[in-house]
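Hypothesis: this fold can be encoded by more than one sequence.
Test: take the structure tokens below, design a sequence, compare later.
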């Protein structure tokens, strides 16, 4: 039996797409049972629907954080998710939600953690004059962009890189790192 994964997105959803396409390979140890978004306009929802993956969208506007998270949590459990994967999910999570998925929730972050938590990671790496930037997959704990790092990919910064050109290259690395790390994680877990 493949591990059942719910993916949370807020927008474009390119990491979700990479996870989804990787899951099409017969040897992939996970399957995506739900893609949920906190923005009904999230572009990734259209892609997931076209691929036949169940989706759920609920705007967080006007809802208390814990209240909103309970709605998402209920959808994940209803879909039979055993793991939660954050893929560009730009929401802080309630402590209850994090506790409910302890050691079963992963996030991808576009920096070499513990460097540059939060936003504007690419510009921060450029401003610091770093030779390399990159991406990290980590287990989600109650601290933002914290929790044990499972895997990282270093990406060389090129002369003339802007935050946008660097982000685009790191995204290529993200797409490869995430599905492989998730596959290893669910395999190790079983
Ligand atoms: C990705 O670069 C991801 O690493 C980043 O948002 C982007 C989402 O793109 N996540 C964070 O910054 C989380 N702190 P996508 O929607 O195309 O996957």
């Amino acid at each position: 039996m493949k591990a059942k994964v719910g993916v949370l997105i807020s927008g474009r959803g390119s990491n979700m797409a990479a996870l989804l396409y990787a899951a099409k390979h017969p040897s992939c140890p996970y399957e995506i049972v739900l893609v949920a978004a906190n923005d009904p306009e999230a572009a990734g929802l259209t892609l997931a629907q076209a691929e036949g993956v169940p989706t759920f969208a609920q705007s967080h506007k006007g809802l208390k954080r814990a209240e909103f998270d309970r709605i998402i949590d209920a959808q994940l459990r209803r879909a039979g998710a055993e793991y939660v994967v954050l893929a560009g999910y730009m929401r802080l999570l309630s402590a209850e939600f994090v506790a409910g998925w302890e050691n079963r929730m992963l996030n991808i972050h576009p920096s070499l953690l513990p460097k540059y938590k939060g936003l504007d990671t690419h510009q921060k790496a450029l401003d610091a004059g770093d030779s390399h930037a990159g991406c990290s997959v980590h287990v989600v704990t109650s601290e933002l962009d914290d929790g044990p790092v499972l895997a990282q990919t270093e990406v060389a910064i090129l002369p003339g890189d802007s935050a946008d050109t660097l982000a685009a290259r790191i995204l290529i690395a993200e797409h490869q790192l995430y599905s492989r790390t998730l596959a290893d994680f669910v395999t190790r877990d079983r």
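Residues 163-189 form the longest helix (27 residues). Residues 9, 11-15, 87-88, 108-110, 145, 171, 174 surround glycinamide ribonucleotide (CB under 6 Å).
Hypothesis status: open.
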